[in-house]
Amino acid sequence: MPPPVPPKSSAGKTWGIVGAIAGVVVLGGIASAVALSGGGGGGGGGGTTGPKYRVTVPQTLADGSYTLSKDISQQAGTSVPHDGANEHGITAVGGQYGSGTKSLVMVGLYGTIDNPRTTVEHAIRGMKDDAQTDVAVPEKEFTPSGGGGPLTCGVDVRQEAGQKITMAFCVWADASTSVNVAQTDTADLSKDPRSVDLQEFADTAGKIRQEVTKPLDTASA
Question: Taking a C-beta distance cutoff of 8 angstroms, is the pair 192, 185 a contact?
Fold first, then answer.
């Protein structure tokens, strides 16, 4: 587990630790998405067509708004099972990004996904099951203004060393990929969860989806 959150005056150090906390929660959710996927999935068609896309870790995200500070693909690869009842031949990647006082964690997996909805549900369940994380704004679907299919987004609050950390997240999946992004802001760690503009975050996540998803046969970004 990450160390306790220090006083807000240690802005740089706090930013890194908050990002690590978000990474623990998001990574745990993605790992649970594979580990929990039991009992005949079906419905996604991934097993019949084979994977078509992969998830990458670009140096920047959301039109350059976020810059990569740490590639956590190795950690993701050792934490996420390669096979489950609903996901097969899985490769996991991820990165921690910064934008001013904001820290964003992106963790994705790619391979063959039988039922994308099941993967999304289990990723969110994995985040909820963390003993120090509470649901603040229940998840629901948002359609990014930039286009693309709906994303499932919500807000969780993490209790860490007596400090409440508000964390917005969005999750999506298809027959080849699943990605979870979560954002925290050290400028206001205990921000009222109800004040988070989830449509705005979904618009950002929609841009990220377009940037990290690449055809499986292309060179790395």
Answer: no
> What are the backbone angles phi and psi of residue 56, rounded to the nearest 5°?
-110, 170
Which two three-digit tokens encode residue 12?
A: 């740089």
| DSSP labels, 136-154 | EEEEEEE--TT-SS-EEEE
Q: Which residue has the higher pLDDT, 5 or 20?
A: 20
106-148: pLDDT as tens digits: 999 999 999 999 999 988 888 887 778 889 999 999 999 988 9
* Under 8 Å between Cβ of 14 and 6: yes
Q: What is the DSSP letter of 54?
A: E
**Does the predicted model carry a pTM greater than 0.70?**
yes
DSSP single-letter state for residue 43? S
- Using CA atoms, how far residue 66 sits from 61, 97, 166, in Å, is 5, 6, 19
- How many CB atoms sit inside 10 A of residue 25's CB? 25
Contacts 24+ apart (CB under 8 A), 202-206: 202/142, 202/143, 202/144, 202/151, 202/153, 202/170, 203/144, 203/145, 203/146, 204/62, 204/65, 205/144, 205/151, 205/153, 205/170, 205/172, 205/181, 206/144, 206/145, 206/146, 206/147, 206/148, 206/151
**What tens digit of pLDDT does each residue of 210-219 get?**
999 999 875 4
